[in-house]
Amino acid sequence: MDLHRFGRAIRAVRMQRGMRQADLASRSGISRTVVGRIERGERAGLTVEALDRVADALGGDVDLRFRWRGEEVDRLLDASHARLVDVVVRRLRALGWDVAVEVTFSSYGERGSIDVMAFHPVRRALLVVEVKSVTPDMQAMLAGIDRKGRLAPALARQRGWDADVVARVLVIWDTRTNRRRLESHAASVAALLPVGSREVQRWVRDPGPPAVSGVWFVPDARRADGTRPSRQRVRLRRV
Asked: How much is the pTM?
């Protein structure tokens, strides 16, 4: 992140909105001194939380990116995501689900794609799967899952899948970081995805009413770079 550019942008928007540094400090819940340091682009002592609070107080958001060897990080993340999708697809097909990947939609201005959409022809159950190899912006992700869950039945009918129940599941690698990230937003996650990993897997094996909405943690047997992670005990906690 270019903190000098970030700081200039914060100052420009603050002045455009007719706010003093003290006003922004009060609205964001941080000190005026910290606001001044942010606007000057000073790095020492600043936290991502402080940057996020200031941006949110102005009606903006923070886009924090990690660069490493050009686009290499993107390729690693894409490979990890593709591998997780493959794990989900193989497991669902083995359990008798019909599976479609990257189902695109465009409905009344809402555009996007569903990572995995599956239909169980015997139980007439529809499963909408959001696949994340890492945890992104939590609120945007949850809003996306909710939107795709609403649009999925119509998309399924276009394929001849007439479902009686619709389940929404977030599938994510089972890592300490991912669990910690979800736990830090436990209330928001539980409001949309209240069911734990074991319950989700039980439902996938025997789908039927009522449908589930939950998080499915998948153990990662291999990192995106092809190496195997070291063995470590991970205490399973329901999200």
From this structure: 0.66
